C-alpha cells in the first residue's frame, strides 16, 4: 500500500505559503511490523525513499535511514535481523495535508524530527513529508530569483528579475522566516 514519498516540489508550487501537499508524491511503502530491518532497508533502497512506515494494520511507527545507520553503528550488522517494531519511532507525528509548509517545518524543528506523516482531514494517511523536501521547497523561489538576476542579459531583464525580490521577501515573512534571515537571503540572492 502506498503512503507517500516526498520529492522535488511540484511545478504548480508558486510561493512559500503553499501547503505541505505540494511537496510530496504518494510513493512511500507501508510495512507490516514484523519484517526485519534488513528487509526494511532493502525496500527503502528499492523505492529510493528515506523512511518506511510500520503498520499493524494502521500506521504505528516509522523507521528512517538514520535509525538504521545508528543501530548498525551502535550494535553492528547483527541488528539487521531485528524486527522493525523494535527500533521504530512511535507514535507517528502527523501534519494535515492542508497545513502550511511553515507548520510542518515548525513541528519538525520543535520535536527534533525529520519526517511527518501527512494525513487528510479525516486523519487517514496520504503521504510523508521530509525536512529535506520542505527546505528545498522554501529555497526554490530564492534560487529562481537569484538565477534570473545572474542570467539577466540586459537592463530590462535585470529590472524584471529584481522586481520579484519584494514578493520573495513578503512570502518568506508570511512563512514565518525571521526578518534578519529574510534580509540575509535577499542579500545573497541579489549579489
What does this 3D model show about the protein?
By secondary structure, this protein is α/β, with parallel strands linked by helices. The protein is 44% helix and 17% strand. The protein is built from seven helices and eight strands; from the N terminus they run E-E-E-H-E-E-H-E-H-E-E-H-H-H-H. It has helices at 37-47, 65-75, 101-111, 131-151, 155-162, 165-174, 179-190; strands at residues 5-6, 24-25, 30-32, 51-55, 59-64, 94-96, 115-119, 125-130. The protein has a three-stranded mixed β-sheet. Strand 6, helix 3 (101-111) and strand 7 (115-119) form a beta-alpha-beta unit. Helix 4 (131-151) runs antiparallel to helix 5, helix 4 (131-151) packs across helix 7 and helix 6 (165-174) packs antiparallel against helix 7 (179-190). The protein is elongated. It starts with a strand and ends with a helix. Mean pLDDT is 77; it is low at 1-27.
Amino acid at each position: 500500500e502506498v503512503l507517500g514519498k516526498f520529492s522535488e516540489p511540484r511545478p504548480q508550487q508558486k510561493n512559500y505559503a503553499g501547503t505541505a501537499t505540494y511537496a510530496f508524491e504518494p510513493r512511500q511503502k507501508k510495512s507490516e511490523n514484523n519484517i526485519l530491518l534488513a528487509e526494511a532497508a532493502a525496500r527503502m533502497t528499492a523505492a529510493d525513499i528515506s523512511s518506511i512506515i510500520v503498520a499493524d494494520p494502521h500506521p504505528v511507527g516509522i523507521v528512517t535511514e538514520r535509525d538504521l545507520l545508528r543501530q548498525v553503528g551502535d550494535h553492528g550488522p547483527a541488528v539487521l535481523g531485528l524486527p522493525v517494531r523494535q527500533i521504530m519511532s512511535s507514535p507517528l507525528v502527523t501534519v494535515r495535508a492542508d497545513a502550511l509548509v511553515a507548520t510542518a517545518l515548525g513541528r519538525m524543528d520543535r520535536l527534533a524530527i525529520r519526517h511527518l506523516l501527512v494525513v487528510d482531514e479525516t486523519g487517514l494517511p496520504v503521504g510523508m513529508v521530509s525536512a529535506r523536501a520542505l527546505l528545498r521547497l522554501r529555497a526554490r523561489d530564492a534560487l529562481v530569483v537569484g538565477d534570473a538576476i545572474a542570467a539577466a542579459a540586459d537592463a530590462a531583464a535585470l529590472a524584471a528579475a529584481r522586481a520579484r525580490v519584494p514578493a520573495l521577501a513578503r512570502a518568506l515573512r508570511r512563512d514565518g522566516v525571521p526578518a534578519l534571515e529574510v534580509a540575509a537571503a535577499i542579500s545573497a540572492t541579489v549579489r
